[in-house]
Write a structure and sequence with these properties.
Blueprint lengths: L25 H30 L23 H36 L3 H4 L1 H18 L8 H23 L1
Helix pairs in contact: 2-4
Length: 172
Amino acid sequence: DSDWEAYKVPPTRTPVSERTTSVPNPVAFFQTVFNYVVDAPVTFVREWIERQQAKNKFYYYHQKFRRVPDLSECLEGDYLCFFEAEAQWRRDRMVDQEIVEIVRERLGACKQREGPNQFQNCAKEAELLAQVTKAYQDRYGDLGVHGNARTCLMKQKHRMMEERKAQANASQ
């Protein structure tokens, strides 16, 4: 009972449009010119650069910096040494911050995993976090946002002097 005229079967092949003019299509002409003038040279240069980079890969995330002298080892007026020591101090501070954060995440994961038994089963992680945070606080605490290698060195010097004074008072 289907009405074949209402639901005609589509043609099996799409008909090719007949060209009505002998003038070439300007869009195709500009596409071809663009391809040969702009796209092909850019593609060639990019592929050549990628081949050169593939020969000697540089993994920036495995970059290893050489250790530079500490600020206390720099000579007076050696501004390059001061700058390198400051950069080294900043890298060390970032590494120490990441160490504290990793230990904190491990303790949090242990607490989440153990649930009510966290005080028994996570004591080792809690002790490690206490040690790491104390060491970080001893070295970088109270420096503030604008802390630098010189203020950190002075803080450590004052702390060592206080410890010696306390030892001298205790021995008397």
